[in-house]
Amino acid sequence: MISRRTIFFFTAVWFAAPAQGQVASEIALPASVLQKILMQTAVTHCTDMASLHSTSMEAALTELYIRRNYAPLWQEDTARLPSLQNELRQLSDDGLWLVDYEYALQATQMPDMCQELRLSSYYLMALEHLSRGRLPQQLREPQWQADAHAREELVEDASAELVELALAGDTSITNAFSQARPSLNLYRDLRQSYARLDKHAQPPMGIATGLTIRAGAQDTRLAQNFQRLLSDGYLPADSRLPTHYDAALQQAVRRFQSDHGLEPDGIVGAHTLTAFNMPPAQRLLQVRINLERLRWLNAQRDDYLLLVNIAGASVRLYRGEEIIWESRVQTGRPSRPTPTLVSSIDRITLNPSWTMPPTIVREDALPQIRRNPNYLQEKNLQVLDLQGMPIDPTQLDWSNPTGVMLRQPPGPTNPLGQVVFRLDNPFAIFLHDTPSQDQFAKSSRSVSSGCVRVENAAQLADLLLTSASPEQRALLLSLQESDETREVRVPGGPQLIIGYWTAEAGADGRSVLMQDPYDLDQALMNTFARFERPSAAMQRAELSNAQQIGDENATQAYLHSDLNSNSDAQTCSSL
Fold first, then answer.
1. What are the tens digits of pLDDT across the range 109-144?
2. For residue 487, which phi and psi values (nearest 5 degrees)?
3. pTM of the prediction?
4. From CA 280, how far away is CA 301, in angstroms rounded?
5. What is the per-residue pLDDT for 575?
6. Which of 42, 103, 208, 561 sits most deeply, having the most CB atoms within 10 A of its CB?
7. Where are the beta strands (DSSP E) in 185-288?
8. How far apart are CA 220 and CA 243, in angstroms?
9. What is the enclosing helix (H) or strand (E) of 42?
10. What are phi and psi of 237, to 5 degrees?
11. What is the largest CA-CA distance in the chain?
12. Closest by alpha carbon to 406, among 374, 379, 433, 429?
C-alpha cells in the first residue's frame, strides 16, 4: 500500500504546480518522470479498483494517464464527475447493474491519487460493459470465429480501444458513453423498448390450464385473458369483456402470440397460456440478457455484414447502420443445431449438386432405403464410390454399406436449391436456397439439419455480386437458368455473423419475445440473476475465470460441447 506521505507528495507535485513567474522547488527528477514513476506504483498498489474482463485494468489505466500526460481526470473540471454519475444512472436503461458502479455513483471530488485512479477504473469498466458486454461472451455463450489471429488482436487492442473511448470524455463524458453504446439498430430499439417496460409490475393472476379455447367458445378463463390483453395494450382502453371468444379478442390474441414467437392462430392453447402466465420479472430478464447478446454482437461486427439470428430465424444484410436486404431463414432443429460463428461469405455456388452428409445418410436415408426399394429413384439420388464413380445400388448390402456416397444432381428438387453461399467453418455448414418454401410461413422455423436455408436466396446472390461487370452478370444469369454447376468468388464479401438472441423491438416499439429453440436463455438468465448484486469476491472470481480460460480455450470447449458435437461435422439439409 502506498504511504500517505508518498500520496501526499505526489498530489502536491501533481496539483500544486507553481503559478506563472514563480520558481518551482528543486526536485531530483523532472516532474513528468516523477509522476510516471509514482503513477505506475499507484496503479499497482491502490486497492478496491474496478476490474475489466477484456484487458488488464492496470494496463488500461497506465495508458489512459500516459495519453493525458499524467494530468488528473477528475480534478480539472468539477462538472465531469456529476456528468459521469448521470451517464452511469442511464445504464439502467441498457439493462446493466447500477450496483456495479456504486463507488462512482457515491463519489465526491477526489482528494488523493488512489481515489482518482479508482474513479477512473470505474469509468473504464462502465465503458467496457457498454461497448463489449458486462460478461465475457466466450465464457457464457462461446462462438467459433474464422480468424483466430484477428480475435487475438482484438483482445490485445481492448485496452487501447477503451482508452480511446475514455479520452472522448475530455471533451464530454456524454460523448464517451454515446460512442461506447452500440450503434446497431437492433440494440438501440430494444434499449428503448426495455426503458419503457414497467420495472415494478406485479405478477398477473395465473390463468389455469384446461381445454384449448377456440373461436366462439364460452370459457370462464376469458375474463382473465381479456384483462391480461387489456393491461398490456393489446386491446383498446375502452374495450368491454365479450360474452364469448369473439373476433376482436382473437385478433388481440394473435398480436400477443406474434410478440411471443408463437403461431398467430388465435387459438389459446398450452403455449399461449404459458406466455400469458410469464411473470413480468422474467420478461424483463429476457430482454436484459438479449441486450447483453447484442452488445457482444456489436463489438465484433464489420460495416458490411450479413447477420443471421438462429432463434428469430431471420437474416439481414447491412451496410453500416442501414439494412439493405432482409428475409426469413430456416435454421437447425434442436437435435442438429446451427452453430453460432463469425466468418465471411467468400464464394457462391450456382446450381449445386448435393452430396448427402454422412449424418443424414446414417440417420435419415438408410432407414428409408431399407423400407422402400424405390427411395433412391424417387429422390433422384445417385450412388457413388468415394472417388465419385457410379455404383449399381442393387449390388450393395444396404444393411451395412461402406465406401459409398449419395448425391443428388442440380434440379428443382435439390435440397440446396439454385444457390449456395459458402463460408469458412469447421462444421461443414453454409447458407443456401431450398425447395421447402412452405416452411418459411411458419412461426417456428428450426427445421433444418444445421445449415441455414434462405428465403429469396437469388435476391441475396444478386446483391452480393453487384461488383460483377455487365458481362459477368449476364453469364451468371444464364448459369442460373441452366443446370450447369459453377462456383463464383465473392471478392470483398460480407462478414457473416450467425448469432442467437430471443428479443427484439417490434415496429410499434413493443418488446417481441421469441422462442428459445436451443434452451440457451435460462443459463444466461441464471447468471444475470446471480450477478444482480455481485460481491467483490464473485466479481474477482469471474475476472479470474475470464483470464484463465482465454478465447482460444473457450472456442475449443465450444467445439466439443454437447450443443455442437457432431462426429462427422456434416450438419446440413435433409431430404
1. 766 788 889 999 999 999 999 999 999 999 999 999
2. -105, 135
3. 0.85
4. 32
5. 52
6. 42
7. none
8. 10
9. helix 31-45
10. -60, -25
11. 103
12. 379
